[in-house]
Design goal:
binds zinc ion, ten-stranded mixed beta sheet, 9 helices, 22 strands
């Protein structure tokens, strides 16, 4: 008798180079090599990116297998051992958790996972949900990792999903400069732009597929389907050994964190949110070059900040005028005096008012431009000195320097979850990719890649 077993893992990453995706790749390949049947690619689920204590992108991982009842304990044992082996428990910021759920995802867990994309959830609530859902918890230290581990198990790609292929470095190379040929990345980007995204920043030409620092990830390519990613990866010239490859199904590039539209009165610190309202002041530039504009809805008002790094979001924000209609998406932060600010990650301008400039009239006799005779005094022709009343001032419609539409930061400043322009119009609802335990040939070839060093 086979049953679905879902394994959720969170927070094995630490500042000094662990990476939860690596733990998941290792565990997935170990289970497959022992003959266990995956129901899907491993899931890399990005959660609320505006949670301040998750500095590395707030990702959690889950694996989904069809397991014989009598083998459940063996799989759990392998999972816990793999997490323990790949986690540096001495890291203060590491707080790993593993969750096992047998059978289908119950509704409360699905709802919890949906909220984890845009809200702040407590470990206490996570414990309660785990108990309700009959999920088993293995906490290696504290319980903070429980939120992510549960949320990755309960994730839902019913709206949209993408994939990422990750290549890992051999141990001796971690911390050294990455030997990836950047020209080959640009060539790959030119060829696979329709099915991959955010390979290269178009404004700067900067290669975006390689992380920085002592991360075990050599490179990651994001795209629409596993087969295209495998082909794109093969175009890249890599001049160092690759320890292993894995393809993840993910919610990256889907705007999943902007699934909750809130009224301004309901905004709370660290949420990711979407608000709709009208601009209520003239945008101002503050220290650092950031642009602040206030937005009102029928329940309140909030300052929206467009940081310098957000590029065209900031440029557009600067051109807004009181009365314009906007939809602003981003994260809630607090100002020094406790007032909330919405840090804009996406700006949609849905209505532009006509702004008017008042001009001095032309002379009704000779046509020359008139000058003002002083405040409230009317006008006098510069040429023939004819006088015109103050009511003769001309209203002239100003040309607005922005158009309706969506403004996004450049790809180099995107969050993992930001849906890039290249994916606009694309929604890929997903269920399990691998039916009846038959692995996709792409995945099979990846799993069989052995350690090359
Ligand atoms: Zn005149």
């Amino acid at each position: 008798m086979q049953t679905e077993l879902h394994i959720g893992i969170d927070d094995t990453d630490s500042r000094l180079g662990g990476c939860t995706t690596y733990t998941a790749a290792l565990l997935f390949q170990e289970l497959v090599s022992k003959g266990f049947k995956p129901l899907d690619y491993p899931w890399l689920v990005r959660l609320n990116p505006n949670v301040p204590w998750k500095t590395r992108g707030n990702g959690a991982l889950s694996l989904h297998f069809a397991v014989e009842e009598e083998q459940l304990e063996e799989v759990k044992k392998i999972a816990v051992e793999t997490v323990e082996r790949t986690t540096d428990l001495r890291q203060r910021s590491t707080d790993p958790a593993v969750v096992f759920l047998k059978g289908r995802v119950p509704t409360p867990l699905g709802e919890f996972a949906a909220r984890a994309l845009h809200d702040i959830l407590s470990a206490r609530e996570a414990r309660h949900i785990a108990e309700t859902a009959n999920a088993e918890m293995y906490l290696l230290k504290g319980s903070r990792g429980l939120v992510g581990a549960l949320a990755s198990v309960g994730a839902n790609f019913g709206h949209d999903h993408t994939f990422e292929i990750l290549a890992y470095r051999t141990r001796e190379n971690i911390g050294m400069a990455r030997r990836v040929n950047h020209d080959s990345v640009r060539q790959m980007d030119a060829r696979f732009r329709a099915v991959t995204f955010n390979n290269v920043d178009p404004e700067t030409g900067r290669v975006l597929i390689c992380p920085h620092g002592p991360d075990p990830v050599l490179l990651g390519i994001r795209g629409e389907d596993p087969a295209s990613l495998a082909k794109a990866f093969n175009q890249i010239e890599v001049e160092e050994p690759i320890e292993r490859l894995m393809i993840f199904k993910t919610n990256q590039g889907t705007d999943a964190h902007f699934s909750c539209h809130r009224r301004i009165e309901a905004l709370r610190l660290y949420q990711s949110t979407v608000i709709t309202g009208k601009v209520s002041n003239v945008p101002r530039i503050v220290r650092g070059g950031h642009v602040i504009f206030r937005t009102d809805d029928e329940t309140g008002s909030v300052d929206c900040a467009a940081y310098r790094a957000t590029g065209s979001v900031r440029e557009a924000a600067l051109q807004l005028a009181p009365g314009d209609s906007v939809t602003v998406s981003g994260g809630i932060r607090s100002q020094p005096l406790g007032e909330l600010t919405l840090n804009a990650e996406k700006l949609e301008v849905t209505g532009l008012i006509h702004t008017v400039r008042l001009e001095n009239p032309h002379c009704s006799i000779c046509g020359a431009r008139c000058e003002s005779m002083g405040k409230g005094q009317g006008f006098r022709c510069r040429k023939c000195k004819a006088r015109l009343p103050k009511t003769s001032r001309v209203k002239k419609r100003e040309l607005r320097k922005i158009t309706l539409g969506v403004y996004l930061p450049p790809p180099r400043a995107h969050r993992h979850l930001t849906k890039p322009f290249s994916r606009y119009g694309i929604h890929r609802p997903a269920s399990f990719e691998i039916s009846n335990g038959n692995i996709d040939p792409t995945l099979e070839s990846l799993v069989s890649i052995s350690i090359t060093s």
